[in-house]
Each structure stands twice: as structure tokens, then as C-alpha cells.
Amino acid sequence: MRECRRFSNIGRSTRTRPPVPDATGDRSSCCARREAALGRDQKPFCDIDTLRHRYNGSRIPFSHDPCSSLRNNAPPIRPSHIRSPVAVTPLETSSHDSGKLGVSLANLVEVIVPALDAVRRSASSDRMLTIVEVGAYAGDLTSTLVAWGHINRARVVAIDPDPQPSLVELACREPGIFTLLRDYSPEALLTLGSADCIIVDGDHNYFTVMSELNAAAELASPLSPYPLVMLHDVLWPHGRRDHYADPARIPADYLHPHTPGGELHPDNTGLAHGEGIPYPCPANKEGGDRNGVLTAVEDFIASRDDLVHALIPAFFGLSILWSLQAPYAHELGALVAPLDRHPLLERLEHNRVLHVTESRRLALQLSSRHERLVQLHHRIATLRGSRTYRVARLLARVRHFRRMPDLWRETTVVRAEAS
């Protein structure tokens, strides 16, 4: 069995899944259908067998050999070859991310927007696209999606049961292109009819994500039998550990033991008491069956043979799922190939979360000690204004005056000896 990688397989159970053959028992026919979906005169963006990553959960070797394109006298594929009509500028999300953890999906806009461009180019120019964002929160990414929709003839639907004021304001400002649904994602998705792209960054637990992926299967559009799906937080801390916004909405069979306010650390599979970042309601243990966002993604694609899964290990991880039958399959594969499970990005992300966790822990510790210091100053100020403190000061002065003759004699002796 291939050695598990640090991020994409952290805490994964050791169970193995047997290969799922084609319905006729012949795997070659399944490969032939995949090649036909991509076009006869168009080579797949990677070898068909490598798409069977769902059998062992290993990485897709899109860019297994970085120099292969150079040896074939072909220019290397880089995401910068695909330009977006929306100018991607440096984002300012610190107002909604006071700890500067990089939690906003807007940090990955340089990948999301070109992926949407690929979808737009494959659709007819007169067709209105539907982009759905689950868990929009304050609208950091939503504002970019709305700007993209104005240029590319697309409407944006945000699903969030508790939106922030800035997101509500955006819905009031853009009523023609942007719709805000104040509901929970699995139920709200089924009311849309169809969708071309679904961006998921909502409740980070196995049951909710699996429900969202199954609901997405019901939203087939004329463009693709399964919409383009992008999921955030597939790495630490939610990749292999559930987090519950409302534990009462999770069935008992899917609910793991959890602790409100539990602290998490990348090097601790349990709860890091006093050494990690506090989360509202995380599961007590990392890993195992039906635990975490990435586990839900892998279990979902294991039941299908028509989907491709790429994972970009940056800013808590971004998983991208798309259908091989989609007309943008080849272009999207070429876009994400250089980034998919790139070991350099994995190491950078691991280093980033370690430093973020440590800095956050120190900041919380400093804040706690500052609060304690303020309390002590307030207590001292209260004592100084009390009658007891004034009496104590008078007694101290009287005691000092009583000792003055002794101190004078000692000083005289010392001066005599010195002379």
C-alpha cells in the first residue's frame, strides 16, 4: 500500500477498498468510455488509470514528473496560461479574520476564478450560469463571484443560515444577480433545480458534507451531469476531524464525541489543552471512519467512476470535483494539475499552520494575562481608596518614626568608623 501523505491522508483508517470494476466486469470498457468523453482527437490530461485514485486514496499523479513536458518538447502547463477577465487583486479579509489565520476561501480566488472561466468557455454564450456558494459568512468571496457574474452572465446564490451584515448588504445592493438563502445547505441545495458550480465552505463534518455532495448529484445541468464542486477545509483541522455548528442537527450514528471550546493543534490528534487554537465544537479525536471533510469526499467519489478529484494543499486545503463527461474536463485538469497535492505546497501549509497555531496560542495567552493584569490594577486601585489602606499607611509611618533614633545612632557609628 502506498505510503500515506502528511495532509491528504492524515488520520485515515487503515481499511482498504477493493477496486470497483466496470458493470460488465471489464475495466478496459470503462477506460474507453472515459477517453470517448474527452474526445477522440484529444488526449486525456492524465493517464486514465491514474484517475482510479479512489481505490487507495493516494494522490493523482498529474504532475508526477515535472520535467516530462520539457522532454516531450512541449511547454510546461501553468495556471497562468488561463487568464481571467476579473482582475484578481490582493485581498483584504483581515476585518473578518482577526487572528489572521487565512480561514477565508477568498485566499484561493486565483484558483477558483480561472476554474469558473473554464466552465464559462465551455457553455453557450447565451446561457445563464448558476454559481452556488454554501457558507458565505461575510461575503469575502461572494463579492468576487458577483463581480465575475456581471462579466460572464452568471447568477450567484449564497446559502447561509446566519449571514453577516456585509453579506446582507451585498444582497440588497445586487438583487438582480445575487440571491441570499437563509437556510441550511443540504435542504436549500435541493430547491435550486440545477447548478453549474457549487462552492462549499459550510458546516465542516462528515454527515453535512456527504449530504451536500449527494444533493449536488441532483443538480445536473445541461452542461454536465455533475456540477463542478469545490470544497474548502479538506486539510487540518477539519480534513479528518468533524466540527459541529449545531450538534443537534447531526444524527446520532454520525455524531462523534465532542467538546465545546476544544483546543486543536496540528501535532495532536486529540485535544491540546492549553496548547492549541480553541474551536466552538470539534470532535475529540482526529481520524477514523466517517470523520472529517476529506473523509466524506473520498467516500463519496469511491462510489462513482465518473468524477475526478484534485486537492490543492493551501490555506487549509481546497478539493475540486468534476465530471469526466463535462466539456471543460480537459481544460480544468490542465489548470489544477501542477497544484494537485504538490509536496512543496504541502510542506508550506504544514509549516504555516504550525506557526499560525503557535502565534494564535501566544496571542490568547498574552490576552489572558493582560486581562489578569487589568483585574489586579483595578483591585489595587480599589484598596488604595479604602479606609483600611489609609489606616495601614498611618501605622507604617508611626512605625517608621519610632525606628528613627535607632537608625540615627547606627548612621553615626558608621560615619565614625569611616573617619
Order of strands across the widest beta sheet? Answer: 3-2-1-4-5-9-8
**Assembly category:** single chain
Number of strands: 9
- The structural class is alpha/beta
CATH class of the largest domain: Alpha Beta
CATH architecture annotation name of the largest domain:
3-Layer(aba) Sandwich
Mean pLDDT across residues:
80
Total helical segments: 12
Helix content: 25-40%
Proportion of strand residues: 5-15%
Radius of gyration using CA atoms only: 29 Å
Spell out the helices and strands N to C. Answer: HHHEHEHEHEHEEEHEEHHHH
Largest sheet: 7 strands, mixed
Number of domains: 2
CATH homologous superfamily annotation of the largest domain: Vaccinia Virus protein VP39
Low-confidence stretches: 1-85, 87-94
How is this structure best summarized?
The protein has twelve helices and nine strands. The protein has 419 residues and is α/β, with parallel strands linked by helices.
Please give the structural blueprint.
Blueprint: H1 27-38, H2 68-71, H3 109-122, E1 129-134, H4 140-152, E2 154-159, H5 165-173, E3 178-181, H6 185-189, E4 197-200, H7 206-216, E5 228-232, E6 263-264, E7 277-278, H8 293-301, E8 307-312, E9 318-323, H9 329-336, H10 343-384, H11 387-402, H12 404-418
Parallel strand pairs: 1-2, 1-4, 2-3, 4-5
Antiparallel strand pairs: 5-9, 6-7, 8-9
Helix pairs in contact: 3-4, 3-9, 7-8
Structure, described:
The chain folds into 2 domains: 27-365, Rossmann fold, CATH 3.40.50; 385-418. Residues 1-85 and 87-94 have low confidence and may be disordered. The protein has helices spanning 27-38, 68-71, 109-122, 140-152, 165-173, 185-189, 206-216, 293-301, 329-336, 343-384, 387-402, 404-418, and strands at 129-134, 154-159, 178-181, 197-200, 228-232, 263-264, 277-278, 307-312, 318-323. It is of the alpha/beta class and 419 residues long. It contains 12 helices and 9 strands. The strands form 2 sheets. The chain has a 7-stranded mixed sheet with strand order 3-2-1-4-5-9-8, with helices on both faces. The chain is elongated, with a radius of gyration of 29 Å.
